[in-house]
Amino acid sequence: MLCGERRARRGCPALNQQICSVCCGTKRLVEIQCPTSCPYIASAREHPAASIVKQRQQDMTVAVHLVRDFNDRQTQLFFLLTSLFLRYESVDLQPVIDRDVEEAAAAVAGTFETASRGVIYDHRPASLPADRLATAIKAKLAEVGQNAPTSFDRDAAVVLRRIEQAVGEARLTDPAHRRSWLDFMDRVIKPSEPGPNGPRGEAAPSRLIVP
User: Fold this and answer.
1) Beta carbons within 8 Å of 76's beta carbon, 6+ residues apart
2) Mean confidence (pLDDT) of the chain
3) CA 10 to chain CA mean position, Å
4) pTM above 0.70, yes or no
5) For residue 127, how far is the Cα from the chain centroid?
6) How far apart are CA 153 and CA 74, in angstroms?
């Protein structure tokens, strides 16, 4: 697990031995189960690397742009749905990918838009994974939209179309990365813990308020 190559200068309380600074920085909380009392963990949290700070700033700039013209309910819906995508577990245990999100968001948005014109038609994604995700989206919106004003469905459609657009742009920018947008939103919602490969913190609970 440890390199055994560089000079060990740090006392690791988890391993009860000396390790080098590189192994400490790259393996903490990933391969090494570090206790919260570790001084290096505390130091990294207080003084994150410049690259991590820069990444956070860039991510937040993009995230703010995504919700730039949203009202409060739309903003809350955006982050509620994004949290749903990040926590979603398919029945076949296959991780959700950007294409699934794009197709599911487009389908549910289409259903809401059609309903607003007085036509009841359930738009369905072409792929099975996206169809299952669309079902989860509709269930969540039905849950939070109970007793909501008629504008709720319109707000949901606007948010879903924005998500569809953002995911589509991310797929075009980085076609080789199947979770480019999801990984970006994961960084926004669950800020990185210390260390280049450290785990993520828990997502904050939804604070969606529907008047």
Assistant:
1) 206, 207, 208, 209
2) 85
3) 34
4) no
5) 22
6) 10
